[in-house]
Design a protein that fits this description.
about 200 residues; about 75% helix
Length: about 200
């Protein structure tokens, strides 16, 4: 069976691989050329206008009549085909659309930093609380005796070794627990003649 340190290193490496793949996928997506539909969506996000309004603005700029705009927009809703005047409009504004950087996308956004700080605090603090307070109450020592916290691992290890019939090593663990202040089991096993 793997040691806990090996498992934690493997887990860390897996997380790093996932982060690397995610970052490389995002970089590939940023570097590829956008389609006219993606430019339309991006312009919609920038301008807070609907596609219908953008169709009308493009038609007005390129000199197309109103009745054809409605027909072209219905066709766009049916099969997602963009008319030529919208493509030309997007091609003219491509440089400005690509240059736009939203203000909300800052790296040091205070709300985002606050969220991740609280999330990390809850995750790390919650795991400490679980390990130190909740887990020992779920799985208490079998006899219910009070054992000093530092001696508990040695007692549990001695029980595990005794179950595997490794009495000599179990006695060593009981002696270590006795050095930390819990000698009842060690004294009992010495009286029974199991430990020396």
């Amino acid at each position: 069976m793997f040691e806990p340190t090996i498992l934690s290193v493997i887990f860390f490496l897996l997380v790093m691989i996932v982060v690397y793949l995610w970052a490389s996928k995002r970089n590939l997506a940023k570097n590829r050329a956008l389609t006219p539909k993606e430019y339309l969506w991006k312009l919609k996000q920038i301008s807070d206008k609907s596609e219908h309004e953008l169709f009308h603005i493009a038609a007005e700029e390129k000199g197309w009549p109103e009745y054809q705009v409605e027909r072209h927009f219905r066709r766009y809703l049916e099969d997602q085909t963009l008319p030529e005047y919208v493509k030309e409009f997007l091609e003219d504004g491509k440089q400005y659309i690509n240059a736009y950087r939203p203000k909300r996308g800052e790296f040091l956004n205070k709300r985002l930093l606050l969220f991740y700080s609280l999330f990390a605090l809850l995750t790390i603090g919650g795991s400490f609380i679980f390990c130190l307070y909740i887990f020992p109450r779920i799985f208490p020592y079998p006899d219910g005796k009070s054992i000093p916290k530092l001696a508990k691992p040695y007692i549990f290890r001695a029980i595990s070794l005794a179950d595997r019939r490794l009495y000599e090593q179990a006695c060593i663990e009981l002696e270590r627990a006795c050095d930390l202040g819990y000698c009842e089991d060690y004294d009992l096993k010495k009286r029974e003649g199991v430990c020396q």
